[in-house]
C-alpha cells in the first residue's frame, strides 16, 4: 500500500462522488463522499448524472488522472545488482549512460518515409568502406524491426557478400533476370542474411559482366528493392566514373563517406567531396556523414581533431570508429564480438544517419 499512499491514496474507500445508490443499496453514508442525511448539506438535492458539468466546472475525466510511471530497471552494473538482490523493491533506475543509449536506440528506430537509400563510398581502397557498410547495416537491422539490405555495387570483385554466411550464389544480375518477382520471398531467394538480419545482395563475379553493370541496371535493381526494403545501403566501388555510380548518387538520400586517419586517405575523401560538389551533388555533400576508421590500436599519427574540424566545415557530421580486432579479420561480422567502444561508435553513427529519415528529399529528385 506504500506506493498508493505516496500517490495521495488515503487507504479509505474511494467512490465516485456523484454516485447515487438505488433502492436497497447501501449509500456512502455521511460526509465527504456524497449528500448526507437530513440536516446535512445537499440533502434532498437532485442527483447529478456522472459526466455532466457541475456548478464548479467540468466533470472529472479519466484524461485528468495522473499516472506515475514506474522507473525502468537498470540493465547492468551495481544498479541492476541492487534491483535483483532486493527482489525488485529497490529500483535505482537507469544510469545516465543507459538513458543515453536508450535515446540513441529511439533515434535509430525512427520511422522511414517509404524507403531510405544510403550510398557508402570512398575513392581510396582499404579504408574500411565495406566494413562500414556491414557495421552500419547490421546495427540498423538488429535494432529496427523492418527490412534492411546492403547492395554490392562494386564493379571490381566486391567482397560484401563475404561478410555474411553464403546462402545463395545469386547476384544483382540474377535478380534482374528473374521475371517472377512478385513478393518479398521472391527477392529473398537472391540474398544472403547475417546474424543481425542484414541481407546482402552480391555483385556480379564475372569480370566481363560486372564491367557492363550500367546506370540503368542499378536503377532497375533499386526499383525492385524499394518495394520490399525500408533501408537500402549501397557499397560503392572506389571509382566515381563507372556507369552505375551515376545512378547510385542520383538515387541516394544520404552519403556516408569513408576516410582513414592517414593524410592520404583524408585527402582522397576531400577530393571526393570536391568532385561531388562540382557535379551537381552539393546537397549530398552538405548532408554527408564522414566516417574516419582507425586502422590500428593506439593514437593515430594524424591530428584527429583537425580532420574532424575540416570535415565538419563541409558535412553534417563526423564519426570516429576505433580499431577493432574482430573487424580487422575481414570476415563475417558478428556484433556480439565487437568491443564495447566499437559497437557504441556504430550505434552513434546509425543514430546520426537516422536523424535524416524524416526529412523530405523530394526537392532533390528530378
UniProtKB/TrEMBL annotation:
PANTHER family for this protein: ESX-1 SECRETION-ASSOCIATED PROTEIN ESPI, SEPTUM SITE-DETERMINING PROTEIN MIND HOMOLOG, CHLOROPLASTIC-RELATED
GO terms of molecular function: ATP binding; ATP hydrolysis activity
All copies of domain CobQ/CobB/MinD/ParA nucleotide binding, residue ranges: 118-329
Superkingdom in the source lineage: Bacteria
Region span, Disordered: 1-61, 74-93
Biased composition (Gly residues): 24-42
Name of the protein this chain belongs to: AAA family ATPase
Gene Ontology biological-process annotations: negative regulation of cell division
Biased composition (Low complexity): 43-52
A GO CC term attached to the entry: cytosol
